[in-house]
Amino acid sequence: MASERKATLIIEGREPVDFDILSPVHGNDCIDIRTLAAKTGLFTYDSGFMSTASCQSKITFIDGDKGELLYRGYPIEQLAEKCNFLEVAYLLKTGELPNPKQKVEFETIIKKHTMIHEQMARFYQGFRRDAHPMAVMVGVVGALSAFYHEAEDFSDAEHRSISFNRIIAKLPTIVAFAYKYSMGEPFMYPRNDLDYTANFMYMMFGTPCEKYEPNPVLVHALDTIFTLHADHEQNASTSTVRLAGSSGANPYACISAGIGCLWGPAHGGANEACLKMLEQIGDVSRVPEFIKRAKDKNDPFRLMGFGHRVYKNFDPRAKLMQKVCSNVLEELGLENDRLFKLAKELERIALEDEYFVEKKLYPNVDYYSGIVQKALGIPTTMFTCIFALARTVGWMAQWEEMITDSEYKIGRPRQLYVGTPRRDVRALAER
Ligand code: CMC
Q1: Most C-beta atoms within 10 A of its C-beta, which of 180, 194, 247, 368?
Q2: Are 20 and 90 in a shared domain?
């Protein structure tokens, strides 16, 4: 990766200093400034990481201008069409797609770990019924470290693998239990005769009173949603997981930190916010009014599900999600769904509007995912939990990569201090 090319830093009154320029497989070259502070006593200032690569990674690549997303080199469109979510999980974990034997072995391992400790199931009782399920998720996933700690030598590849499999297997159960608890319905224990996503739907929507057989079209749609959300490079929650993990923290605690970060409306909370926005707009006739508000600098309103830090052409996941959305609505006979029609019209108008064109603001993955999930019967407050369930695969793969990186160091950014200069504390009577 190192190259002969150098970037030279010239600071007035000082000797020029050279830095290597690193060339990645895909993407922007990077100036390696790791020795900057030692060589010059200077730091760089880059709040929001607008120009900073925080790590090297082999997992996911995004070309924001082309609208391309690759997991381990494979385009997301091909993975969504040809693989199921567990194959994608295997790919993100190991770097390769499974062959038929590996696929069966992996699925079998995951199925064997779907139950959670019975005492963990009781842990839910401590939460209020009206707690946001993401708050419950932060607590319960963090608590996994209290229940499963026999494999916590994270320098051991086998222990890391056990943790990966365990959390991937248990997340659907944890999410479904959070839902059931909020509804006051009994927990449905996993059914290992069902595939990963079908089992999740069973635990969500089944009840002990009647037989529930998941609809294969809807299962496929949800499985695709999982695949589309499985990883996304060094976004805020993934960086949170890496930063938390860089101290050597337990991976379950790191995933819990990632869930907390994902919850925000600028990140995973956007699909929930998007659906609320569509409800608020209510009717196609009011679209111009809301487009006007989104463009008004003095109005905090933004079009939720629009815009992305990296995608400046289109978000390939949004295109796939729109297709999933149509399939689900067709299957359920909801082609004339009011919100879907409204979303399409809002998208059409925004994409023709100079403001959105100029700022390169396109629908992101969250734009249609709320409508699909609503159609699937998933309540709004659960949307981000579904995102978290899927993204846990990416988080764990990124955590593993960080732990095994030979250049691995605890994450410790510096700062530009702009507070009060040094001063002395006066005695209380003199203040
Ligand atoms: N509606 C209206 N204006 C917008 C929007 C929007 N959704 N997004 C960005 N802008 C404007 C923003 O006001 C700014 O204008 P100006 O240059 O005049 O100050 C300009 O576009 C650049 O915006 P930014 O906030 O500096 O861009 P960013 O890269 O820091 O933020 C973003 C990216 C996703 C946080 C932002 O586009 C946004 O808040 N979108 C709505 C929330 C959303 O849909 N989030 C989901 C992201 S995808 C899923 C995920 O990864 O979690």
Answers
A1: 368
A2: no
Catalytic residue among 20, 223, 231, 366: 366
Active site residue 26: no
Residues 39, 19 contacting (CB under 8 angstroms): no
Ligand 1 within 6 A of 366 CB? yes
Give the ligand 1 atom nearest the CA of 48: 30
- Name which of 222, 155, 231 is nearest 394 in CA terms: 231
231/357 same-domain check: yes
Pocket test for ligand 1, best of 233, 309, 362, 365 (most atoms within 8 A of CB): 309
Query: In residues, how long is the chain?
Result: 431
User: Is 78 inside any structural domain?
Assistant: no
* Stated pTM of the model: 0.91
Alpha-carbon distance of 31 to 22, in angstroms, equals 6
Q: Which domain holds residue 256?
A: 85-409
Q: Which two tokens stand for residue 49?
A: 């990481």
pLDDT in tens, 258-308: 999 999 988 888 888 898 999 999 998 999 999 999 999 999 999 999 998
Give per-residue pLDDT as tens, 161-201.
999 999 999 999 999 999 999 999 999 999 999 999 999 99
Report the domain count for the chain. 2
Whose tokens are 């209380």? That residue is 428
Contact 267 CB / ligand 1 (< 6 Å): yes
The residue type of 422 is R
Q: Is 135 exposed, middle or buried (0-12, 13-18, 19+ CB in 10 A)?
A: middle
Q: 403 near 245, Cβ under 8 Å?
A: yes
Determine which residue's CA is closest to atom 27 belonging to ligand 1.
Answer: 309
Domain assignment of residue 65, yes or no? no
Residue 431 is assigned to a structural domain of this protein = no
Tokens, residue 110: 């995951």
Atom 17, ligand 1: which residue's CA is nearest?
359
β-strand partners of 30: 22
140 in Cβ contact with 194 (< 8 Å): no
| Same-domain check for residues 159 and 270 | yes
